[in-house]
Amino acid sequence: MRRTLSGLVTTMVLVSSLAGGRAQAHAAVARVQLSNGSRTAHSSVADLNSSATVAARELARMPTGRRFLAAVTSGGKIYAIGGERLSPSPDGGTQSHAVRTVEAYNPRTNTWMTATPLPAARTFLAATAGTDGRIYVLGGISRPYDIGDPRSGLATVEIYHPRSHHWSQGISMPDGRFGLAAVTGKDGRIYTIGGATRCGPSDLMDNLDAPRKAPLARSYLGAPGQCYGSRTVRAYDPRTHRWTQLPSLHVGRVLPAAAVGADGRIYVMGGFSTCLYCWGNPPSEASAEVYDPRTNRWTPTAPLNHPRFVSLAAARGRDGRIYVTGGCIAHITRAGLDANCRDPAPVDTYDPARNAWSTVGVTLKPRDGLAATTGPDGRVYAVGGCRVIDPARPFACHILEVIPPQR
Q: What is the gyration radius of the CA atoms in the chain, in angstroms?
């Protein structure tokens, strides 16, 4: 079986005991601490399942189910780009395949259409729409099982032209990265944030107790798993075709979420910092920071209400707040951090004016590796992502949901 980054994501979240070829999932407990040790999450997963919450509205399902894709809005349509499809592996687990697939959703008709595929398959990519409506696709990896290769992170940039439905090659990033975030600033520049260049040997197996180590060894022993988040931030100017190095993040981040506020500042939250798929090290999954292009500085902001494992997604709503959802909710206990991927994921919003987070009364179907974008109507759409409770039967990969407007 090929050792994949996706398989390791599933391993970290769900410690599986293989019995008769069928996985019985149990929530994993990662003994880590929040990067801001003085603050703990004040809501548990149980609090989120109260009668006060409502489910997000589910729309027409995406034709090609996938996760770790990118979602971008341009020309009145929402584009779901790249990512990876999951399928059962011969040993009863899950295997993943990066795809070239691009599909476009029309919110007015609630229908999907097939768009011109990517020139090459990518997963763990980033994408953003330029001010001219063109879509920039950056980084990622073409084969999930190559993450241990220092050359595996893609530096290439592909540009999609919605009017002519064709792709062109852009100016490559200075280095290859996957698990990065990308946004378009109000100044028209394309910002790339964080990510990783490669993953090294995992110490996951060394930190598991013997009863759990044996079944996991059959599927994941020796898989590359330690990904150290990059603090690198760069900006690409489509007018000059040049990349510029910017001040670094306060902490490195793999799989962060990012969004541009109404004030033009760039907000980044979550992701993993010192160690992505190993135990006992404190990731930065609760922290957030903001970049001000006017001062060229990063400043820490209030940490997330709900720390999230695996991945999260963010987009700005028409009310000016930053909406964050997805991933596996981390419930802080005295024993450490319990990553719960079984229950619906809450939606947290950040108010830049108050520097404060709040949890709105909306939940999404639980899944990881989803993407989010602000639709042409100003509402926030959650695209794709999968829920892997039984590795042989991943589901929810086709889901498209829209978050109801909030007061």
A: 19
What CATH number was assigned to the domain covering residues 5-402? 2.120.10.80
As to burial, measured by CB atoms within 10 angstroms (0-12 exposed, 13-18 middle, 19+ buried), residue 110 is: exposed
- H/E run at residue 190: strand 190-193
Is the predicted pLDDT of residue 93 greater than 60, yes or no?
A: yes
Angle at CA of residue 50, ends 47 and 52, nearest 5°: 115
Torsion of CA 268, 269, 273, 276, to 10 degrees: -120
pTM for the structure as a whole: 0.82
Q: Do residues 229 and 150 make contact, with C-beta atoms less than 8 angstroms apart?
A: no
Tokens 């709900």, residue located: 306
CA distance readout (Å), 285 to 71, 192, 281: 22, 19, 12
Please tell me whether residue 146 adopts helix, strand or coil conformation. Answer: helix
20-73 pLDDT, tens digit each? 332 332 233 232 333 333 333 333 333 444 445 788 899 999 999 999 999 999
Query: Among positive and negative, which fits the CA dihedral 199, 201, 206, 211?
Result: positive
Q: CA 208 → CA 39, 285, 332, distances in Å?
A: 28, 22, 20
Query: Torsions phi, psi of 48, nearest 5?
Result: -80, -15
The DSSP bridge pattern shows strands 57-58 and 400-402 to be: antiparallel
Q: Domain extents for the chain? A: 5-402
- The CA-atom distances, in angstroms, between 2 and each of 6, 26, 68, 147, 148 are 11, 23, 18, 11, 12
